[in-house]
Every structure is written in C-alpha cells, then in structure tokens.
Amino acid sequence: MKIEKVYMTREAEELVNNDRLFKQSYEEVVASICSSVWPMDSETFIINNTEKNGNGVVPVKELCYVMLEDTYNWFREKPLDVLKVEKKKGGPIDVYKEFVENNELKRVGLEFETGNISSAHRSMNKLLLGLNRKEIDLAMILMPVFELSRFLTDRVSNYEELEPYFENTEGKPFIYIGFNADEFSSSVPFIPKGSDGMSKRSIKKWKDKIENN
Amino acid sequence: MKIEKVYMTREAEELVNNDRLFKQSYEEVVASICSSVWPMDSETFIINNTEKNGNGVVPVKELCYVMLEDTYNWFREKPLDVLKVEKKKGGPIDVYKEFVENNELKRVGLEFETGNISSAHRSMNKLLLGLNRKEIDLAMILMPVFELSRFLTDRVSNYEELEPYFENTEGKPFIYIGFNADEFSSSVPFIPKGSDGMSKRSIKKWKDKIENN
Predict the structure, then answer these.
(1) Does residue A198 register a pLDDT over 80?
(2) Would you call A116 an interface residue with chain B, using a CB distance cutoff of 8 Å?
C-alpha cells in the first residue's frame, strides 16, 4: 500500500517536525498501513479493479492493526475519560499509543476509518473531543483515497469526501492520511468481505494493559 | 410537542439575548417544533409508547418544516458555497433563513436530525463549517430526547447521545434543542413510518428563491 495524500494542521506539523516521538508515531502509522500487501504472497498491494465495491476492507485494516500492535506496541480500544467516566456514553478510540520521555507523556489517538462518511465525522469528533479535553496530544485518521475506495465495500468513505471538513480541526494537532493501492489489476483475487477466512487473534487491548499493571 | 432540553454555547446565548432577530429565529424554530401534534386532531403531541421503535419520525419533521416554510418564511436545502462551489462535495443545509436589518444580513442554519448518531455528527460538522466560513451566523440542531427517540424509528439519534460532543462547538454560536412528546399513551395510533399517507407538497427551496429573484 502507499500513502497518496496527507493533510496536517499547522499544529500537527509543528509536533511532527519538532518532536522526535510524535514524528515516530506518525512514521509507525505510515509504515503499518504501507506494510499491507495483496495477494498475501505479493510484495505490493494489488487490487482487483474489475468490479465496483468488489473487495472487502476488513483484512486491509486488520493487517495494519497487527503491525501497530505487535511491532510498534500500540493498543486497541482506548476509552476517553470524558466519554466513559464523565458522560457514560460513546465508544473508545480505535488505536492508541503512549510515549514517555523525560517523564513527559505523549499520547496519540488513531482511527482507521472504514465506515460510511457520517461514521467518519463521528471518528473526527471523537478525536477532537479527546484533544480538547487533553486526553490525547495528537490525532490521526486513516482512510482510503477515492480511487481505491470505489473498489472496496459499498459506502466505505474516502479521504476526499471528508477533506472539506479538515479545516474544522484547524488549531488542533490533526493528521489525515489517505492511502491507495500500489497497483490495479484484473488478475488478482478479490479481497474477501467481512472477516471470512481470517484467523482469529487476540487483540492488544488498552484495558488489559491497565489491568495487568 | 414540548422542548425539554436546550444547550446554547456562550456565543449563541449572546446573540439570542442581545439581538432581536436572532432571538426571533430561535423562537420560530421552537414554535414550529412545538406546533407538532399527534394524533392530527389532538391539541398536544401524544405518542404510543407500547412498542419500542413503533413510530415513524418523518411526519413529525414534516409538520415542523411546513410551519417554518409557510408561516415563518424559512427555506429548504441551502447549499454552502464552501461545499457546493469550492469543494464540489456534500449536500446543502436542511433549513435556512436570512434576516435583514439596517442593511445587515443575519443568517441562520438549522438541521432537524432524524438519522442515526453518526449522521448527527455530520450535520454538526456541516453547520460548523458554515460558521467557520462565515456563511451562517447562528447554527441550530433539533433532535428528539432519549425518552421520545426510543419510540421512534430504530437508530434515530437523540439529544443525549450527541450531548458529549456539544463542547466541541464552544467558541461558535451553536444551539442544540431536544424535544419530547407532551404525553405517552397506549390509546393513540402509531405514527406511520416513512412518508406513507402524507400528501405531497412542494417544498420551499432556496434554489427557487434565488432563481426567481
């Protein structure tokens, strides 16, 4: 997979350019999404483009998550206190990592968006709430670009569709990453939809990290 | 129907308390939603609460719109320039009214939210974009409160569900209005789902106003 489009608010740019660990967090996300290949024995990500909405999106996300969790020590399902404790409503942030340097905590929240466009708006608002409440210091959203999304599950949103709203997060450290297939071809199999054929694995949940400490 | 919960950001409160026309716009929206009755020959809004998700929501919205359009001269489907002209993406604002006083234009955008919670996030972000781009001066969202929404179409979002995110719009003039039935009863008919049985009417579109000028 390759990164095709990136938008950083000025505040995000400052963090990534001036702080080694925030830069590292961005690079880990980029490396993880770029590590996705298809077919599984390929060296690159080649998508079958013979049928609109012909490919599933879950395995793409899953491969990225495996690398984030296993190689880079990110955690899944990090609840925000403002939602879980205070408002008692709303789900956790998708993926999360804490870095510590000189006793200073640096917290990054990531949503890998594979729902429809309104779901992408919710992800954006959840991360924004986390930033406003100072529960995270940097927010990222990962989405396919339009060119790829039209060959993925119907109604999966894309980078371009959310793009008009990026400016709503100006003033906050927010990064939007649009990824694309390396190649489009009629000679590879379709990516299965849902989690068909994927082996079960135990995900690295934030809850377990907290409880085991 | 009655108003049960209202949240105004400080900026919205200032507009409504200090400006006659912004106050009027708020009062028109409140009067329009409160004018909804059920059954149609009732003096109040009584909802059949014998079955979860038993009632439709479209007729409720429709009655409110009729009053906004016909009595108060609001317009439907107002496109934002930032979306329609600049980004060439995204739909219009649901309902819109312009007031003029001393050559000063005062523009109010309203979304009557009857979709799921992620759709409510999109409505919020669209209005916020309109405020940021100074295409509207005051934003309002109308939603049922939880107590009512559970007897409406499945997955219709509610005031309480979006409430944790209201603070994301602090600093901007934003009003959230939660309405509720006047009475819950087993002796009234269910509200039909979809637009079944509703007479067709021509809505008052912003486009037509512009084209006829």
Answers:
(1) no
(2) yes
Query: What are A51-72's pLDDT values in tens digits?
Result: 999 999 888 888 899 999 999 9
Q: Do B89 and A160 touch (CB under 8 A)?
A: yes
Write down the mean pLDDT value for chain A: 92
Is the Cβ of B118 closer than 8 Å to some Cβ of chain A? yes
Cβ contact, residue pair A124, B121, below 8 Å: yes
- Measured CA to CA, the distance from residue B96 to residue B30 in angstroms comes to 14
What pTM did the predictor assign? Answer: 0.91
Task: Indicate the domain borders of chain B.
Answer: 2-212
One-letter amino acid at B144 equals P
Assign a CATH topology to domain B2-212: Restriction Endonuclease (3.40.91)
| Per-residue pLDDT, A199 | 62
| A132/B contact by beta carbon, under 8 A | yes
Residue bearing tokens 């729902």: A115
Contact residues on chain B for A89, CB-CB shorter than 8 A: 160-161, 163-164
